[in-house]
Write a structure and sequence with these properties.
2 domains; Aspartate Aminotransferase, domain 1; 7-stranded mixed β-sheet; 5-stranded mixed β-sheet; globular; binds pyridoxal-5'-phosphate
Length: about 400
């Protein structure tokens, strides 16, 4: 698809190549292998001289349609779809780095991403340094001659801290380092890291791209040259997205612009309301004027996104955790689950769930207090969400 189209049009139309049946909505190709006209064609497909499908571990028309649509939306030359968000991060690291290389990553990454980089990749000879998401001097100081990749997630989870992608990209490129951005929280509708100078985008499609909590999937995006070894890893390792999941995500991408706009509008309404509640100590949402990096967020994002966190003020005799748990347990509508990016709003207590593997000292130092509650705002009416936080009203 050419660039003249608006983003909503690209999300509806890109990647759609009807078969000879002329179907208007993409079909699902639930088959593992593809037939060749003759032995010579098989040879040409395997050698890469002739484009076309071979075997669904690495070529499938439904997965290709998803890849092409997401690539058009992110403004990437190529997209490699994967079985999950974690396998996207694995493929990204395996494709770009070699034994002995060094990665600098934000300390406020998705917890499992930190586990993968430190506990697992370090066993395979990669060195990893974790730094503050927002303190660029720490990134600069962490660079060694072996540094190959910067890995970042912005806004962060759950405190919605924002990192200056353009500044980090400039720093990376001066030292011949690749910047990879996990764009799961924003999606290309809200933020386009490649246009800001990042080299690679990774996604967990499981979240907003699906949008209704059905399937697991992921993606890695970037230039053809950078994606070549990522794709080669996928072809051999088989961390492949299933055709069925690709079809679900394709449908999700068509409505992603209107959904993200609605998530963000409802999240801003909830954040604004929360800020006015006496039982709330502090609200974390990039779309609020009070957010310390509001200006930067509004420069690199089209809105504040769908995630709102806040510190609950304990009542007399109550601990912070008791106050947060009481608020969560009093909800009837909002789902108590750590997932996000669903039409159903979810509520979670990071200190005892997603961030429970981190020591209390390290957790508090990073700002995740025992009274912190995170809401991933869904698509319900905002006044019903407010009313469900009964302990605040
Ligand atoms: C969920 C998530 C992942 C991991 O994705 P899966 O699809 O669960 O493997 C990675 N990064 C972020 C920011 C996430 O929220």
């Amino acid at each position: 698809m050419t660039k003249e189209y608006h983003p909503e049009t690209i999300s509806v139309r890109a990647g759609n190549v009807p078969t000879e049946h002329g179907e208007n909505s993409e079909a699902i190709f639930l088959n593992s292998s593809f037939r060749f006209e003759n032995a010579a064609q098989a040879a040409a497909r395997f050698s890469g001289d002739e484009p076309g499908n071979i075997y669904s571990r690495f070529t499938n028309p439904t997965v290709t349609a998803f890849q092409d649509k997401l690539a058009a939306m992110e403004g990437a030359e190529q997209c490699v779809a994967t079985a999950s968000g974690m396998s996207a991060i694995l493929a990204c690291v395996m494709g770009v780095c070699n034994t002995g290389d060094h990665i600098v990553a934000s300390r406020s990454l998705f917890g499992t991403s930190v586990q993968l980089l430190t506990n697992i990749m370090e066993r395979w000879g990669l060195a990893v340094t974790l730094v503050s998401l927002t303190d660029l001097a720490e990134w600069q100081a962490a660079i060694t001659p072996k540094t190959k990749m910067f890995f970042v997630e912005t806004p962060s989870n759950p405190l919605t801290e924002v990192c200056d992608i353009q500044a980090l990209a400039n720093m990376a490129h001066q030292a011949d380092i690749r910047l990879a951005v996990d764009n799961c929280f924003c999606t290309p509708v809200i933020q386009k890291p490649l246009a800001l100078g990042a080299d690679i985008v990774v996604h967990s499609a499981t979240k907003y791209i699906d949008g209704q909590g059905r399937c697991l999937g992921g993606a890695v995006l970037g230039s053809k040259a950078l994606m070549e070894p990522v794709y080669a890893f996928l072809r051999s390792a088989g961390v492949t997205m299933s055709a069925f999941n690709a079809w679900v995500f394709l449908k999700g991408l068509e409505t992603l612009p209107i959904r993200m706009e609605a998530h963000a509008r409802k999240a801003l309404a909830l954040a604004t309301w929360l800020e006015a509640q006496p039982q709330v100590e502090r609200v974390y949402y990039p779309g609020l004027q009070s957010h310390p990096q509001h200006a930067l967020a509004m420069q690199q994002q089209t809105n504040g996104g769908g995630i709102v966190s806040f510190d609950v003020k304990p009542k007399a005799g109550q601990s912070e955790q008791e106050a947060a748990w009481a608020l969560i347990d009093a909800t009837k509508l909002i789902s108590i689950t750590a997932n996000l990016g669903d039409a159903k709003s979810t509520i979670t207590h990071p200190a005892t769930t997603t961030h429970s593997r981190i020591s209390k000292e390290a957790r508090e130092a990073s700002g995740v207090k025992d009274g912190l509650v995170r809401i991933a705002v869904g698509l319900e009416h905002e006044s019903d969400l407010q009313a469900d936080l009964t302990l605040l009203t």
